[in-house]
């Protein structure tokens, strides 16, 4: 019935795609993702924009110096530890909030964010916060966006601040100085006179307006989620949940990346929620066609999807058609371990019987448009983390918000089978994905799924290269710099 496309899909770039109206993250959609997002909100103190700073920045635009960034030895850090899933996630969330983000602006911001010069600059600044003062390098970056006539927005300022690891207030200062200088140049004497007369006429009103504008801007900055601060404030320390599984690495010294484990799918604010018309159940009287046997093992893997009984049905939780919903969603017998040549993987510490439910695939459900925004960055960093949902409606992104299924590696002879399933609703746009054992799996075996792509499609994790040929050279350079290539 359903046609499952179960591959961790490497996205292709669509140059024709333009993002015109992407809503901001400030909406009232109450879903699990939003709740979790809001619970992390917290106010932070923003220093008032200081006029002296603005004047200094103004002078800087005229008399700026090029910063001297000492060459950082390659061994000090590597690219993978720099572009952690968390940093990438914070970055893309920031981009998604730019209401007028076009493909061109998306490309431009991403190129700057991952470019060697800015990686190097940020890392240096992070470790030596007082060493680089106002620099031409930074001013030129703001100039680039200013003079390309990108519309001013708090989100764009935040994105630029993430590229250069400076506070949004600092970036705004540069932007305002450019604005001031540009407007001064454009003004002829008569306009200047009119302005002065206006100021004399309504001095108090103008001051009032300016004050209100600044207050509004500061309020907006304060609304900006604390999570993002990590992108520009070296004092910020990530506070993420502990990993609920055991982790084992006897291959190298790599630590598991910082991730947010979730126990239910998160729904991106732009996706909406399942249609209530699809909330229905059965009487359970004539429903003998369950896919499970009396031991709760899957007996039919040829079915398009599993429709478990739910709160709309006449049965209760003991019904034999409630296997997945009654299973433990954090099976401690599974372990994340380091494989020899596939990065991290998952293995089972206890034998698993054929037909057993093993895990659900969890992540953030995003729509096509959001996945296109994210794919620009993922393509540049060669990150493969999409799992297509059925019928091409939505995608599931598990690069950062994930469960243990994020670590399932591919095998053409996989021991897990992938089956879509539904419990409370039957809206195919929000189908859930379950993994069952296709055969008995001995203890300590790696568990794998078939991504339905050829093995040759995998580059060894440690030599990832850009899918984007324009950035290939630059990325080669970054990889070399980061110690990945000789
Ligand atoms: C969903 S992730 C699996 C977890 C991944 N191994 C890790 O360390 O994060 C998919 C990525 O794992 C790697 N991978 C999965 N199966 C592989 C295989 N059979 N051979 C080589 N690499 C594989 C590829 O880099 C792929 O992009």
Automatic annotation (TrEMBL):
Quote the subcellular location field of this record. Chromosome
Gene3D superfamilies, alphabetized: SET domain (2.170.270.10)
- Where is region (Disordered) located? 1-37
Q: Locate the Pre-SET domain: which residues?
A: 280-327
Q: Which domain of life is it from?
A: Eukaryota
Q: What are this entry's molecular-function GO terms? A: histone methyltransferase activity; zinc ion binding
Q: Which GO biological-process labels does this protein carry? A: methylation
Q: Which SMART domains match?
A: SET
The SET domain sits at: 332-452
This one is known as 8465_t:CDS:1
Q: What are the top taxonomic ranks of the organism?
A: Eukaryota, Fungi, Fungi incertae sedis, Mucoromycota, Glomeromycotina
């Amino acid at each position: 019935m359903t046609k499952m496309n179960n591959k961790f899909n490497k996205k292709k770039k669509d140059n024709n795609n333009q993002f015109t109206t992407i809503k901001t993250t400030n909406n009232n959609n109450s879903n699990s993702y939003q709740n979790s997002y809001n619970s992390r909100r917290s106010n932070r103190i923003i220093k008032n924009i200081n006029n002296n700073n603005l004047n200094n920045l103004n002078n800087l635009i005229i008399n700026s110096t090029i910063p001297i960034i000492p060459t950082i030895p390659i061994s000090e850090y590597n690219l993978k530890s720099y572009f952690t899933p968390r940093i990438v996630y914070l970055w893309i969330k920031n981009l998604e909030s730019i209401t007028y983000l076009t493909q061109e602006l998306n490309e431009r911001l991403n190129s700057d964010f991952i470019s060697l010069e800015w990686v190097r600059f940020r890392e240096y600044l992070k470790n030596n916060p007082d060493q680089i003062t106002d620099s031409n390098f930074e001013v030129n970056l703001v100039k680039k966006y200013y003079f390309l006539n990108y519309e001013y927005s708090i989100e764009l300022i935040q994105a630029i601040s993430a590229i250069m690891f400076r506070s949004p207030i600092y970036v705004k200062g540069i932007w305002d100085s450019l604005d001031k200088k540009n407007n001064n140049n454009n003004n002829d004497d008569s306009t200047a006179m009119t302005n002065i007369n206006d100021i004399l006429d309504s001095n108090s009103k103008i001051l009032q307006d300016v004050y209100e504008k600044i207050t509004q801007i500061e309020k907006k900055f304060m609304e900006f989620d604390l999570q993002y601060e990590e992108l520009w404030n070296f004092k910020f320390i990530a506070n993420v949940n502990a990993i609920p599984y055991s982790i084992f690495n006897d291959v190298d010294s790599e630590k598991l990346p910082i991730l947010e484990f979730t126990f239910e799918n998160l729904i991106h604010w732009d996706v909406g929620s399942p249609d209530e018309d699809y909330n229905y159940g059965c009487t359970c009287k004539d429903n003998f066609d369950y896919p499970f046997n009396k031991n709760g093992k899957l007996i039919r893997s040829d079915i398009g999807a599993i429709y478990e009984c739910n709160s709309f049905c006449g049965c209760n939780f003991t019904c034999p058609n409630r296997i997945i919903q009654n299973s433990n969603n954090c099976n401690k017998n599974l372990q994340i371990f380091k494989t020899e040549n596939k990065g991290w993987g998952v293995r089972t510490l206890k034998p698993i019987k054929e037909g057993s439910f093993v895990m659900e695939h969890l992540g953030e459900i995003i729509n096509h448009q959001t996945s296109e925004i994210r794919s620009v960055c993922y393509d540049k960093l060669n990150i493969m983390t999409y799992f297509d949902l059925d019928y091409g409606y939505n995608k599931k992104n598990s690069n950062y918000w994930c469960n243990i299924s994020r670590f399932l590696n591919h095998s053409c002879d996989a021991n897990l089978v992938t089956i879509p399933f539904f419990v409370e609703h039957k809206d195919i746009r929000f189908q859930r994905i379950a993994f069952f054992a296709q055969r008995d799996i001995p203890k300590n075996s790696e568990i794998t799924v078939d991504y339905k792509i050829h093995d040759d499609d995998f580059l060894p994790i440690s030599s990832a290269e850009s899918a984007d040929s324009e950035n290939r050279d630059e990325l080669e350079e970054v990889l070399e710099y980061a110690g990945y290539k000789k």
